[in-house]
Specification:
Strand content of chain B: 15-25%
Helix content of chain B: 25-40%
Strand content of chain A: under 5%
Number of strands of chain B: 10
Largest sheet of chain A: none
Radius of gyration of chain B: 18 Å
CATH topology of the largest domain in chain A: MetI-like fold
Radius of gyration of chain A: 25 Å
Structural class of chain B: alpha/beta
Number of domains of chain A: 2
Distance between the termini of chain B: 42 Å
Number of helices of chain B: 8
CATH architecture of the largest domain in chain A: Orthogonal Bundle
Structural class of chain A: mainly alpha
Largest interface: A-B, 21 and 24 residues
Shape of chain B: globular
Oligomer: heterodimer
Number of strands of chain A: 0
Shape of chain A: globular
Chain lengths: 286, 262
């Protein structure tokens, strides 16, 4: 429908266009404006890459070689030949399920701890310096400790996800709780809103935008951590897929996997942002 | 004189680390149903005075008695309309009022009754049509109306207005002033209003409390506004008594207690 309207529009440029026609035109224009530049950039980068890597002595495969080598991987993410020989969908699904578990744990523990240190100055004084030190420890540095403690790969990977993504959730939640505007506190005082009702009706909604900022940072970190953790732990997962491809010198597979990892991380980030926008609808406006 | 309805007695308020108290020895008695305005330059402690009456701020010396009971905490018997409306942005207009009703009148009214009461108060400020809108979706004047509905719905003994129309444009302000006069006439609520607008003070008040400059501010003078109600802003504009009251407040603020040049 859009297409036929677009064709019609330039034919009678001097007539006053019906309102619907004008808005559908501008919606189309907006979409074009958002989609075309990144597509052009990708195309140009691909072309440049093809040119640079087609020279003799190039160390990385050009896109044309990747397409030739990894065609099955790109076009069919769902094949399953048993063992580790699976489509990328299955590797991503395994990684995502670990992230889901670790991140869910981090969200629950992070929000609760954040609420505690946001409301209690004593807990704040005691815990904040410890957190500030622990949050700078890189995810992979936790892995040996985690493996030693849990003795198994799966819980170790989940723990690494958890410990990586929990800090921004804690810190942002605490900041959100401490920044409940005095106006809302005054309202709560006048209508004698205390205890659980104060928590549910004032504190949680007021802190929600901060909490979602923390969750969004957290999900990004956890996706960074899972790929690294799986490289060392092995089994089905996108991280180990990359490591496995490296060991068999299959650079084309690695390139394809990297693209999948990036796109998945992007989708995760947007998904949390979307949930945040839906849940905190109205809370940040005055 | 027997026990007044609301008594502010030898009230001083000092903040920690400040060399001088904000308010010093404030003494005021207010009768039931009275409309009292407090006017003064910025920094004269008029908002501080209101916050002490509301119970949001403790008195350093002296105190406030409402019907003989000392005010120590905030409570719904002294409902506040805040300067910046202070509606909860995640609740609709109805939910903002309903939350206050549920918290303060649950012991006295059943659920259906509270629903009716919420709607009636929204209708009182002519916001019934926008009851399902969130604060971000309505204008500043409409937000302030909902704020007034929320305060009235608590059935307060005293309504405290903290520069309620300060953030509104002149036309909206005039409109809301008329609404507040109408509501005050029909409900007979006792009102204390903080303002910096001379016309507003004269138009709405039975008495105008004029504050000296802070720190160490106190009541400089109290002006009785003896104009018959209901008052009409158009007729009053040419009324010589209105003009005189207005002149004497202006004279207090700008001749005898002019704001020191910062």
């Amino acid at each position: 429908m859009n297409a036929s309207i677009r064709k019609a529009a330039p034919a009678k440029p001097l007539l006053s266009l019906p309102r619907t026609l004008v808005t559908s035109e501008s919606a189309w224009a907006r979409r074009t404006r958002d989609v075309v530049p990144p597509l052009l950039v990708v195309l140009l980068l691909g072309l440049l890459w093809e040119l640079v890597m087609s020279t003799p002595g190039a160390t990385l495969p050009p896109p044309s070689k990747i397409w030739a080598d990894a065609r099955e991987l790109i076009t069919d993410p769902f094949f399953d030949n048993g063992g580790l020989d699976k489509g990328l969908f299955w590797h991503l699904a395994a990684s995502l399920s670990r992230v889901a578990m670790g991140f869910a744990l981090a969200a629950v523990v992070g929000v609760l701890t954040g609420l505690l240190i946001g409301t209690s100055p004593l807990a704040m004084r005691g815990l904040d310096p410890v957190f500030q030190v622990l949050r700078t420890v890189p995810p992979l540095a936790w892995l040996p400790l985690s493996l030693a403690a849990f003795q198994e790969a799966q819980p170790s990977a989940i723990f690494v996800i958890f410990i990586t993504s929990v800090w921004p959730v804690i810190i942002n939640t605490a900041v959100g709780v401490r920044n409940v505007p005095q106006d809302y506190r005054n309202v709560a005082a006048v209508i004698r809103l205390t205890g659980v009702s104060y928590f549910l009706r004032i504190l949680l909604p007021a802190a929600a935008p901060f909490i979602f900022t923390g969750l969004r940072i957290g999900i990004g970190l956890s996706w960074l951590a899972i790929v690294a953790a799986e490289m060392l732990i092995g089994g089905v997962g996108i991280g180990f897929f990359i490591w496995d491809a490296w060991n068999s010198s299959n650079l084309s597979d690695i390139m394809v996997a990297l693209a999948y990892v990036g796109l998945t991380g992007f989708v995760l980030d947007r998904a949390v942002a979307l949930v945040g926008r839906l849940v905190t609808r109205g809370t940040s406006e005055g | 004189m027997n026990t007044p309805f609301l008594e502010i007695s030898r009230l001083s308020v000092a903040f920690p680390r400040a060399p001088l108290p904000v308010l010093h020895d404030v003494e005021l008695r207010i009768a039931a149903g009275e409309y009292v305005s407090v006017i003064g330059h910025s920094g004269c402690g008029k908002s501080t005075l209101l916050n002490v009456v509301a119970g949001l701020l403790p008195a350093t010396l002296g105190g406030v008695l409402l019907e003989g009971q000392e005010v120590t905490n905030p409570g719904p018997d002294r409902a506040v309309v805040f300067q910046n409306h202070s509606l909860l942005p995640w609740l609709t207009a109805y939910e903002n009022v309903r939350l206050a009703v549920d918290r303060t009148l649950a012991g006295m009214m059943g659920k259906a009754e509270r629903h009716e009461w919420t709607l009636r108060n929204l209708d009182l400020v002519k916001m019934g049509h926008a009851k399902d809108k969130r604060p971000a979706e309505i204008s500043g004047g409409m937000k302030q109306r909902v704020g007034i509905a929320r305060a009235l719905a608590m059935k307060p003994k005293v309504l405290l207005l903290d520069e309620p129309f300060g953030a509104l444009d002149a036309l909206t302000r005039a409109h809301l002033q008329d609404e507040v006069m109408r509501i005050h006439a029909s409900l007979g609520t006792t009102v204390i209003m903080i303002t910096h607008d001379v016309d507003e003070a004269v138009l709405l008040s039975d008495r105008i409390v004029m504050m000296t400059n802070g720190p160490n501010a106190t009541i400089g003078e109290i002006l009785e506004v003896d104009l018959p109600r209901p008052r009409d802003r158009l007729k009053l504009a040419h009324d010589h008594r209105f003009v005189e009251y207005r002149a004497s407040v202006l004279e207090f603020l700008h001749a005898r207690h002019a704001q020191p040049v910062p």
